[in-house]
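Support request, priority: normal
Reporter: lab tech (M.K.)
Component: structure prediction queue

Hi team, I submitted a job for DUF6589 domain-containing protein from Dendrothele bispora yesterday, and the status page still shows it as pending. I've pasted the exact input below so you can check whether something in the sequence is tripping the parser. The sequence length should be 361 residues. Please let me know if I need to resubmit or if it's stuck on your end.
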Amino acid sequence: MDEHNRRLKAVDNHVLLFYGDLGVGERIESLLRSRSAEATQWRKLQNVVYTLGLFHVKMAAADAIWRTFIEPIKSRNESDECSLIADVKILRPKETIKISTKPGFRRMHEVILHSGIVSRLDCWRLEAEKMNLKFDSLAAFANSNPTWDQLKAMATNMCLKYAARGSKITQMRSKPEANRDKVNENMLLRSEMFLLYEELSYAMNEGDIGRVETCFLPWAFILQACGKHKYAMALRKYLRDIHFRYPKRLARAIRMHILVNPTGKAGKFRGVDWWVEHNNLYLKRIYGGKFSNHTKARILKESPLIGTFKNARIQVQKMFKMGKLTSKHSGANMQRSFSILSAKYIQHQKNQWTYNTLRDP
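Reply from support: The job had stalled in the queue. We restarted it manually and it finished. Here are the results:
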């Protein structure tokens, strides 16, 4: 009996971290409230700690951009060549209707990245042209072999000039109507949100949790403005708990484990909830049975064998030297689409402020 008691450990200083979307968090909070009247810490489940899943935060950020620049009816005006949907018509011409209605995360993610690339390339062109008039294109500027210090100085100036930073957009909107350029104002706002999204995405991919947390505050305001109040509140709650409420060791444990790297490769960090969704794919869709066998009992019974099933399939593929061992394809060649879209940016002067001309978006 003494040996048995010696092996037992108290749960006072141990926690169970649960990662997931807001639905998981709401269920855990409901469970904790229902157990709050219990007598012991074990029965109260005080060792259970819910942590926000970063993959779902990234999805919410992409949805916020869609709600801002595509969902409103006015933003899908056919005659507006400066809207985001106009970029979509060039980047993904066969999926314009799908993106206008219900794009999903992957489509919207690629639209944000590709449209942002073209917009920033146009900003680089404008800055290079102001530096020297002989740089009539980015190719001419690249052939001049600019130094690293020059590129850094130009990038810093572009961040201050082509994004809606601080009170800049407020000052622009407070001017008389005759001195405003609404297209340029919208482009500044779009560039700011695109940069915030890409900063969040890249920081997550690199496992930089400190940089991820710096993105939470602006995204909390953006999500609240878009009507996603639950995610806005969840981001604020995370910052409050991690930096002011939880003990330092618990806060460090959460921050060090909120992102995982299954492959061990650089730039391949993922949120824990992404890995959960990956496992759900194998549990429910691939190895979950079909038709009458697709039952909850079967899924629970075979869930411990998912890794074994996957490994057996990979070994058979290697044994018979089967091709196409992965579903990951190379990225699409967007050079032609980028060239066409870049010409549109130059034609409509999207990133240039036009004085004394009222361009209604």
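The radius of gyration is 25 Å. Strands lie at 16-20, 48-52, 259-260, 270-271. Let us know if anything else looks off. Ticket resolved.
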